[in-house]
């Protein structure tokens, strides 16, 4: 067996640090960490300010000690956070009693806590050590308390965090709640270095960086400004990550909305799926967005050109995020007025027009015009849309009752029943204020349809719901009457 292997198997991790001890006060402190913590702490607090960061680096190595040095020193040394030169120093070091690593870690934690803000660089090592399941519970608790104490000092101080400490803490965050909490508590300090890391990240790093940044809910303005700058010169992969990040932070939706729309609606962008998910995020988290005319035109074009099942997202964005904005009305009215357009597209467009609640006279005139259209489905949809507009419910109710009255003369039984059920469904949606004697004939006829036409189950279900609500809540009668 090689001499190095024999030596590595025989000694504890404490020897790694003893070998690196330097002469003078700092060297004495390093030795005392292993032997007398009270004395080590007293000496450490007396160090000049410019020497404390160097001791912090040594204490980081203490925290990275393992219970035993791996047998294959050359292969596994770097995982301890030590260089091969440090490991070779084993040959000139004397042996100490194994099992002192945890005591040394306790001492290191006490000194780091006492140093306060200066110990910021040790936070990643503290989080990593804290996640070691072999650690005694009381030691893990001490690390956690000290880490939060240091974080509080860092938050109140002027020290800036470098990219490498930020990278280390981010790497621990998936498996360490302490790392995640430290990142969140110190987000104002970490946001810049982590954004810089994102700008220069590889495929493996981007996901975790986005996860961390998306939790920085107090830094949305800074993230938004920097993310927009990064996006301008980014490649497709990084652009996709930035879109994902922006979609998760509601405060970024406004600034990134035009980007979301462009990437979602531009053929061949390669980012359409992520941009679509971002638009879904806008619908879930943001009440309304100021939509630029160019974005509205892109949304309308996508709404027109997509297959029926795919266009709904863009319709919802237009009627919710961009509701009531002047640039929406004209292109949607064009679709509604286009007799060559698919019927379902025209019907869906009607709901976009009335989404803001109030409609212009131009839109109201078009809805009234369509209320007498020869296409029954479009006619009913137009009246329903009119009723959803502010102060237009009574007008729409009269039109629906007029349709029900004229529909009674329809000779085609199935067509008559379909119109009847659709009209009653529209009355139910509008919450029309009706007297029982006015609506009762249509209810009776509608309820009689069920056995003869089971294919109308959905419409019949709507009718039954309407009946129950009408007679239960109106106070105008009962089902028996």
Description:
It is built from 28 helices and no strands. Helix 19 packs parallel to helix 21 and helix 24 runs parallel beside helix 26. It folds into 3 domains: 185 residues, no CATH class; 92 residues; 78 residues. The chain has 481 residues and is mainly α. The protein is elongated and about 105 Å long.
Strand percentage lies at under 5%
Gyration radius, in Å: 35 Å
- The SS-based structural class is mainly alpha
List SSEs in N-to-C order.
HHHHHHHHHHHHHHHHHHHHHHHHHHHH
Q: Topology of this structure?
A:
Elements: H1 3-10, H2 14-18, H3 25-35, H4 37-45, H5 52-63, H6 73-76, H7 84-88, H8 101-115, H9 123-130, H10 137-156, H11 163-172, H12 177-185, H13 187-199, H14 203-213, H15 220-232, H16 236-248, H17 253-265, H18 272-285, H19 293-305, H20 312-321, H21 326-337, H22 343-353, H23 361-370, H24 376-388, H25 393-407, H26 413-430, H27 436-447, H28 457-473
Which key terms come to mind for this protein?
481 residues
């Amino acid at each position: 067996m090689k001499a190095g292997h024999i030596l590595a198997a025989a000694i504890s991790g404490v020897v790694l640090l003893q070998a690196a001890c330097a002469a003078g006060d700092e060297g004495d402190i390093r030795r005392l960490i292993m032997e007398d913590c009270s004395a080590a702490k007293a000496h450490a607090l007396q160090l000049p300010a410019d020497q404390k960061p160097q001791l912090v680096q040594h204490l980081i190595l203490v925290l990275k000690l393992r219970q035993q040095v791996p047998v294959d020193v050359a292969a596994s040394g770097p995982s301890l956070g030590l260089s091969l030169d440090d490991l070779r120093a084993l040959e000139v070091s004397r042996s100490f009693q194994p099992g002192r690593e945890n005591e040394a870690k306790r001492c290191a934690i006490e000194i780091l806590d006492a140093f306060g803000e200066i110990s910021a660089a040790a936070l990643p090592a503290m989080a990593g050590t804290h996640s070691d399941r072999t650690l005694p519970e009381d030691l893990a608790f001490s690390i956690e308390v000290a880490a939060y104490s240091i974080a509080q000092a860092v938050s109140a101080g002027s020290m800036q965090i470098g990219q490498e400490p930020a990278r280390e803490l981010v790497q621990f965050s998936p498996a360490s709640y302490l790392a995640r909490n430290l990142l969140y508590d110190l987000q104002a300090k970490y946001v810049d270095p982590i954004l810089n890391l994102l700008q220069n990240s590889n495929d493996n790093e981007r996901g975790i960086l986005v996860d961390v940044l998306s939790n920085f809910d107090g830094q949305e303005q800074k993230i938004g400004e920097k993310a927009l700058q990064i996006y301008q010169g980014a490649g497709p992969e990084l652009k996709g990550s930035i879109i994902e990040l922006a979609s998760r932070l509601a405060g970024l939706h406004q600034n990134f909305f035009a980007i979301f729309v462009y990437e979602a609606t531009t053929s061949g962008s390669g980012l359409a799926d992520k941009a679509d998910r971002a638009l879904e995020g806008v619908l879930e988290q943001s009440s309304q967005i100021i939509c630029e005319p160019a974005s509205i035109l892109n949304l309308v074009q996508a709404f027109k050109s997509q297959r029926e099942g795919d266009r709904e997202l863009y319709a919802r964005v237009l009627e919710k995020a961009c509701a009531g904005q002047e640039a929406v009305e004209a292109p949607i009215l064009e679709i509604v007025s286009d007799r060559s357009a698919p019927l379902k597209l025209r019907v869906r467009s009607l709901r976009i027009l009335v989404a803001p609640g109030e409609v212009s006279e131009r839109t109201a005139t078009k809805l009234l015009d369509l209320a007498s259209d020869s296409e029954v489905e479009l006619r009913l949809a137009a009246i329903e849309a009119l009723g959803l507009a502010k102060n237009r419910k009574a007008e729409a109710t009269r039109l629906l009752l007029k349709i029900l009255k004229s529909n009674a003369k329809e000779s085609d039984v199935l067509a008559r029943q379909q119109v009847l059920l659709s009209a009653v469904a529209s009355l139910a949606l509008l919450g029309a204020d009706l007297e029982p004697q006015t609506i009762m004939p249509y209810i009776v006829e509608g309820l009689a349809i069920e056995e003869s036409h089971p294919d109308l189950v959905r419409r019949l279900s709507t009718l039954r719901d309407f009946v129950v609500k009408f007679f239960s809540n109106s106070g105008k009668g009962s089902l028996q009457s």
